Amino acid sequence: MENKTSKYFKYAIGEIVLVVIGILIALQINNWNENRKERTQELHYLKNLKVDLKMNIVHIDNYIKTRTKAIASATTILDHFEGKPITDYDAFSANTIDIYTWRKFFQINNTFQELMNSGNLAIISNDSIKDTYLNMESLYKVMKDQEEHFRFDSELLLYEPNYSQVDLNPVVKNYTYKVTNGVAGEKTDLPKHQYDEMLKDLKQKNGFVMAVYEFSAMNTQLNEMKIMCQQLISLIDKDLNKN
User: Fold this and answer.
1) In the Cβ-directed half-sphere of 72, how many Cα atoms lie within 13 Å?
2) Which end of the chain is more exposed for a tag (fewer CB within 10 A), N or C?
3) Is residue 86 a contact partner of residue 92, using CB atoms and an 8 Å limit?
4) Strand, helix or coil at 130?
């Protein structure tokens, strides 16, 4: 009986050990599968982040180009405020429109917003990628504040006095005619005497001064954002190449 009990006891222990080993193996396989699924999801996000970043760089370059042109236009206008005679009123009008029609910048970051809003940012295992993205978001907020500052300045110093001083109907018709190569709008005489009066308005002059200053600041921020985008693409490429 003692021998049988000992054998049964050893057999039971053996069975328990086998069950435990089986459970551990199953858990290990399950963990491996979960890690594989998470990595697959991470790679999907990384590839989409890279696509967004490339599009964002093109988007940034377009805005830098547009705002650089606006800076040149505002600088030319300021020369006339300082006494340089206007010899081409069409060109002068086009330069003012470069400033009046400025647009806010909105970055292309759909995948990052999806990660943030879904709470899935933790899926990105590379801390450098996450930190750089968060730093870029902070820079983006600073730039949006800069845009709001110029929006206030432009409304107060440019739009408000200009709307009460210059007849915009011939200006808009003439500009539309020019940019559509005559398909729309109308070739009209511009209100030259009104532009001459405009050059005596210190408020509007200060508006163009602020345009030069603030567009330059925005371009600096856009260039910083572009560098961050390039750094992120490099980090993502390294992570993707690990597989």
Assistant:
1) 8
2) N
3) yes
4) helix
Residues 185-209 have a mean pLDDT of 92
- The helix, strand and coil proportions of the chain, stated in percent and rounded to the nearest 5, come to 85, 0, 15
> Whose structure tokens read 């054998």?
7
* Residue whose entry in the numeric block shows the structure tokens 């572009």: 226
Q: Which of 5-9, 206-210, 219-223 has the lowest average pLDDT? A: 5-9
Contact 158, 204 (CB under 8 A): yes
Type of residue numbered 152: F
10 phi/psi in degrees, rounded to 5: -65, -40
Query: Does the pTM of the predicted model rise above 0.90?
Result: no
Does the pLDDT value for residue 4 go beyond 70? no
Neighbours of 53 (CB within 10 A): 24
Query: Letter for the amino acid at 143?
Result: M
The answer to whether residue 239 scores a pLDDT higher than 70 is yes
Q: What is d(CA 220, CA 132) in angstroms, rounded to the nearest whole number?
A: 18
Domain ranges of the chain: 2-240
What value does the mean pLDDT of the chain take?
Answer: 89
Q: Which of 143-152, 184-193, 208-217 has the lowest mean pLDDT?
A: 184-193
For residues 218 and 64, give the distance between their C-alpha atoms in angstroms, rounded to a whole number. Answer: 8
DSSP code for 123: G
Tell me the one-letter amino acid at 227: I
pLDDT band (50, 70, 90) for residue 78: very high
What distance in Å separates the CA atoms of residue 67 and residue 27, rounded to the nearest whole number?
58
> Which of 234, 226, 14 minimizes the C-alpha distance to 129?
234
